[in-house]
Amino acid sequence: MALFWVKAKDHPKMKTLQLMMKRFLLSWFMICTIVQLSNAQASRTTHYTVAANDISVVNIDLASDNIEIIETKGSRVIIEARIILETIGNTNLLEFLISSGRYTLINSVDQLDHSLTIKRKKVTSELIVKGERCKETVKYRILIPSSVRYINTSETTASI
Predict the structure, then answer these.
(1) Quick check: 15 pLDDT over 70?
(2) Is 47 buried (19+), middle (13-18) or exposed (0-12) by CB count in 10 A?
(3) SS3 call for 18
(4) Closest CA to 50 of 147, 132, 117
(5) What is d(CA 109, CA 74) in angstroms, rounded to the nearest whole number?
(6) Which is nearest to 114 in space by CA: 157, 85, 147, 142?
């Protein structure tokens, strides 16, 4: 029986089959790796909290189409910003951009009008890394207390 196994293993068709299997597995591994690398992106979520005592109007000027407004209980406005660098998977670069203030928000309260204005600190210039334009996406989710009557965005006015 052992002789049969040795002869079958040394058969030219078995060697060809083994070689094909090795090439198939190597190709499959390479395809999976390339797909994983081509979808490289870095993302992080940051949170901002603002006291909204005696505020009846919130003005939002974030220069983004990705703003979700949710009514909540309480007296604080909570802003959740999800920052995504879609063409680069470098999380260290994203951490540096966040810590340098690229995505920082400015909150100003007008006591006379009882309004709160939320806007970006810096006007963001185009981000170019290694000669390549990097696509940035910032998605905002804003939790606003039910005591706020009107929400003004750069596009439309919404009321709760």
Answers:
(1) yes
(2) exposed
(3) helix
(4) 117
(5) 18
(6) 147
- The DSSP line for 90-148 is -HHHHHHHHHTTTT-EEEEEETTTTEEEEEESSPPPPPEETTEEPPEEEEEEEEEETT-
Q: What is the DSSP secondary-structure string of 21-85?
A: HHHHHHHHHHHHHHHHHHT--EEEEEEEEEE-TT--EEEEE---S-EEEEEESSSEEEEEEEEEE
**Position of tokens 């334009």?**
133
User: How buried is 109 (Cβ within 10 angstroms: 0-12 exposed, 13-18 middle, 19+ buried)?
Assistant: middle
C-alpha 158/C-alpha 55 separation (Å) is 15
pLDDT in tens, 70-122: 888 888 889 999 998 887 778 888 899 889 888 888 888 888 888 888 888 87
pTM: 0.68
Residues 6 or more apart whose CB falls under 8 angstroms from that of 77 comprise: 49, 50, 52, 55, 58, 116, 118, 142, 143, 144, 145
Is residue 13 helix, strand or coil? helix
At position 4, the amino acid (one-letter code) is: F
